[in-house]
Amino acid sequence: MKPVFEYTKGMRETELHYCPGCTHGIAHRLIMEVLEERGDLGNCIAVSPVGCSIVAHQYMNVDMMESPHGRAPAVASGIKRVHPNSPVFTYQGDGDLASIGTNEIIHAAERGEKFCTFFINNAIYGMTGGQMAPTTLIGQKTTTCVDGRTVEQAGMPMRMCELISCQDRAVYVERVSLDSPANVRKAKSAIRRAFKVQDLKLGFAFVEFLSICPTNWGLTAPKAMEWLRENMMPYYPVKQFKCPEEVKEVK
After folding, report:
1. Is position 27 within any domain?
2. Residue 89: pLDDT above 90?
3. Which end of the chain is more exposed for a tag (fewer CB within 10 A), N or C?
């Protein structure tokens, strides 16, 4: 009997530390499956900074480096310039990339650094206990805005794809979601396109994953998926913002 699903060699066979229902594991698997399909597990170099995924090197079976908080794009820029023929990516959360790391990601995008960034947006700080993140929605309750985020106190949530897509040399920008099997398949296609952009040395590639954090949202995983669809998707539309002609047909 032919298997319809196999465990990717890109993931080490070890238990993940992520909370039940967390979608980090899905994102990890998709990226590693794409790298295995491409034959790049032995050639890829990844960077993860501070956040829930700081120990991603224990799970992803590729060469991986940790970086200071928010500085993964700077580290990846150096790695890619030294190893121009190796696929390089950063894996960053919203409490990292959209806060302390905003400077680094904007400048990497504007320079057109030829690596990929995979950005996990779950609208909250996960590792440190559920504080308000730059992506926390208006009215959403966290440990640092117990009555809900307000515009007056914290401004509007940051839309990173919209911001990155304004940079001329960010050539591929797409927001995907991990809320359903159909959307997970679309997310995998976005990862393939991001690496193809890198293969062709076209410029910077950025993929945002709408994700859930059931523990810090105080919801079960199914309810968290519903909350994502009802609340995050209207504010963070799932769409392709920029895509070069050379990779539009990549599925």
Report:
1. yes
2. yes
3. N
Task: Please give the C-alpha separations between residue 65 and each of 50, 89, 125, 126, 251, in angstroms, as whole numbers.
Answer: 11, 11, 22, 21, 29
CA distances from 93 to 54, 98, 148 (A): 10, 8, 21
For residue 65, the cross-strand partners are: 47
Give the residues across from 177 on adjacent strands. 210
Q: Which of 90, 82, 99, 84 is nearest to 62 (CA)?
A: 90
Q: What pTM value is reported for the model?
A: 0.96
Both tokens assigned to 77: 């820029």
- Most distant CA pair in the chain, distance: 60
Tell me if 210 sits within 8 A of 177, measured CB to CB.
Answer: yes
pLDDT tens, residue by residue, 159-211: 999 999 999 999 999 999 999 999 999 999 999 999 999 999 999 999 999 99
Chain-centroid distance, C-alpha 45: 16
CATH label of the domain that carries residue 70: 3.40.50.970
Does some domain include residue 12?
no
For residue 250, which of 38, 56, 1, 84 has the smallest C-alpha distance? 38
Tell me, yes or no, whether 71 lies in a domain: yes
User: Residues 31, 89: contact at Cβ < 8 Å?
Assistant: yes
Please give the average per-residue pLDDT across 76-81, as a whole number. 98
Supply the DSSP string of 211-229, one letter for each residue: ---HHHHTS-HHHHHHHII
CA distance 144 to 62: 36
